C-alpha cells in the first residue's frame, strides 16, 4: 500500500516545550542522542534539529522506511518490521553507528490500511540508554497525520524521561 507523505506535521506547544527541556538536559548532562525512524520518516529528527544547541547533543538519525533497508543496514531479522524485536534491533544498531548514549527507534503503521498484521496506529518504540535496551508498544487513534504527530510527541517524551534519570 502506498500513502502520500504528510506535507506538514503539526507540532503543538507542549511538544515544543518537551524538546526544549530535552535539549537543556542533554546539553547539561553531556549526553548524545540519536534517532532511527521508519513510521515518522524523519519528522522526529527534524524536530530535534530545531531544538536549542542541537548540534552539541543530537548526533543524528537514520530514516529507514523500506523493510529491505531495515534488514540490510540495521540488521533487523527477517520477519515483520512492526515488532518489538525490530524496534530493539533498530535502536541497538543506531546507537552503535552513532556512538550515542541515548537512542530511540520508531516503527509502526499509521493507517488507514496496514502492510503488516497490526491495527492502524500501532507503534513499537525501542530505546537504548547507555547500552540498556527497552521497548514499548503504543497505539494511537486518528488519521495518519494524527498518528505521526502523536508518535513524535511520545518519542520526545520518552527521550526526556530517560534524560531526566541521568
What structural keywords apply?
5 strands, 166 residues, 6 helices, disordered N terminus, alpha/beta, five-stranded mixed β-sheet
Describe the structure.
The chain has 6 helices and 5 strands; from the N terminus they run αβααβααβββα. The protein is α/β, with parallel strands linked by helices and 166 residues long. It has a 5-stranded mixed sheet, with helices on both faces. Helix 1 packs parallel to helix 6 and helix 2 (43-49) crosses helix 6 (144-164). The protein starts with 12 loop residues before the first helix and ends with a helix. Mean pLDDT is 92; it is low at 1-7.
Task: Show the helix and strand layout.
Layout: H1 13-29, E1 33-37, H2 43-49, H3 54-57, E2 58-63, H4 67-73, H5 84-98, E3 102-108, E4 122-129, E5 132-139, H6 144-164
Parallel strand pairs: 1-2, 1-3
Antiparallel strand pairs: 3-4, 4-5
Helix pairs in contact: 1-6, 2-6
